[in-house]
Each structure stands twice: as structure tokens, then as C-alpha cells.
């Protein structure tokens, strides 16, 4: 069983997000890049990023991790990324 991705672990790896939209208690839910969420964190040029992303979005639904997308350059399309779980496991 895969380890659960927790908010504190993400902050420990990347620091606080450059932009946070929504909140744990945000009643409005949205869809973007195939993910259903009520909060998203955007990191611009995140340090320690396992995918060496130019930008990373992390999606949350309440306290639960939903998924993550990266962009490899400023004009590149967003793509789903699965490397976050492995990086957090290694950092623990």
C-alpha cells in the first residue's frame, strides 16, 4: 500500500507554495488537468523537485492529496506527474 501524501511532507520538501488558491474548507470544487479539487498549490521553480519541473501544481480535496502536474518550461503544457510520492518517501 502506498504511503499517503501529507500536506506537511510537501511543505517540508518544497517549502510553502508560491501561490495557494482555495483552502481546506473551500466549498467550491473545481476541475483542472483531469483533477477534481478545492485547493491547489503552485510552486514556481520548486527546489528539490524530483521531476526538475519549472512549475508544479499540487491538488488537494480537503486534506487529501489528489494529484500533481508539472510544466517543464514556461510555455510547455501541463502534464500529470507521479514522481512526488517516491520523492516524499525518500525524504522521510
Question: Whole-number radius of gyration?
Answer: 12 Å
Q: How many individual β-strands?
A: 7
Give me the strand/helix succession: HEEEEEEEH
Q: How would you state the average pLDDT, rounded?
A: 91
Coarse structural class: alpha+beta
Fraction in helix:
10-25%
Low-confidence parts, pLDDT < 50 over ≥5 residues?
Answer: none
Q: Work out the count of structural domains.
A: 1
> How many separate helices?
2
Indicate the proportion of strand residues.
35-45%
Query: What distance lies between the first and last C-alpha atoms, to the nearest angstrom?
Result: 16 Å
Lateral arrangement of strands in the main beta sheet: 1-4-5-6-7
The outline comes out as globular
Q: Could you give a short account of the major beta sheet?
A: 5 strands, antiparallel
Structure in words:
There is one protein chain. By secondary structure, the protein is of the alpha+beta class. It has one domain. Helices cover 18% and strands 36% of the residues. The protein has 2 helices and 7 strands; from the N terminus they run H-E-E-E-E-E-E-E-H. Strands 1-4-5-6-7 form a 5-stranded antiparallel β-sheet, with no helix packed on it. A two-stranded antiparallel sheet has the order 2-3. The two termini are 16 Å apart.
Descriptors:
single chain, 92 residues, alpha+beta, globular
What is this entry, summarized?
The chain contains two helices and seven strands; from the N terminus they run H-E-E-E-E-E-E-E-H.
